[in-house]
Amino acid sequence: MKSNMFHKAGSLRAIRGFTMVELLVTITLIVVLAGISAIGFSKWVRQAKLVASVAKVHDLGASVISYVTDKGELPVWHDYTRGMYWWQLLAESDGNSDPLRFKSPGDSAFDPLRVAQTISYGWNYPVVGRHKGDSGYRTDHTLRLTNFDRLDNILILADGPASNCWGYIDGYYNKPDPERFGGKVAAVFLDGSARVLETPSEFQPESKWYIP
């Protein structure tokens, strides 16, 4: 009888031990699968935000073209004669002063009370209009559509740096933030088309987007 009881107790301990191992393995698998799912979900969310950013720059591009139609020239990064930046010129021109239109869905640093320092999008000022009325330069850098041969190859603006960008991009100090969309950039061109570009590879000093 005692031998039988000991045998049953030993079997029960073995079953319990095996069940615990199974439980640990199961928990480990759940954690791993949850991690994989989280990574997949994170990529999906990032992709969705990138698509939303492409839609936003497309709308901003439409505002730029509307501005050109109305004024006969492109906006400039900074109009010193009026103390206004390109986003303020667009807001005045189309009557939409909502600062959130200049926030990228992937930019968590944007502050509607500090648009100049935190604006999500950067104006391609080396090519499409740097300044107007700047006493440090002899002439204004205001341009018309007729200054360009291929409008589909002229980058207007794109996702900008993470912070302190003051609304412009260039190939040196103000490159698009590579972390915002995992090396992707929402960009709009002078023909109104919006595309996804690669950063930092397409935003170096010698990039074709910075060639007038």
Walk me through what this model shows.
The protein contains four helices and seven strands; from the N terminus they run H-E-E-H-H-E-H-E-E-E-E. By secondary structure, the protein is α+β, with helices and mostly antiparallel strands. 41% of the residues lie in helices and 12% in strands. The strands form two sheets. Strands 3-5-6-7 form a four-stranded antiparallel sheet. Strands 2-1-4 form a three-stranded mixed sheet. A hairpin with a 4-residue loop joins strand 6 and strand 7 (194-198). It has helices at residues 2-71, 86-94, 115-118, 125-128; strands spanning 78-79, 84-85, 121-123, 131-132, 155-159, 184-189, 194-198. Residues 8-15 have low confidence and may be disordered.
Question: Which key terms come to mind for this protein?
Answer:
212 residues, alpha+beta, 4-stranded antiparallel sheet, 3-stranded mixed sheet, 4 helices, 12% strand
Mean pLDDT: 88
Classify the secondary structure makeup into a structural class.
alpha+beta
DSSP strand count: 7
List the total number of helices: 4
Could you spell the SSE succession in H and E letters?
Answer: HEEHHEHEEEE
Unreliable stretches (pLDDT < 50, length at least 5) are: 8-15
Question: Order of strands across the biggest sheet?
Answer: 3-5-6-7
Give the termini distance in whole angstroms. Answer: 97 Å
Shape: elongated
The percentage of residues in β strands lies in 5-15%
Biggest β-sheet description? 4 strands, antiparallel
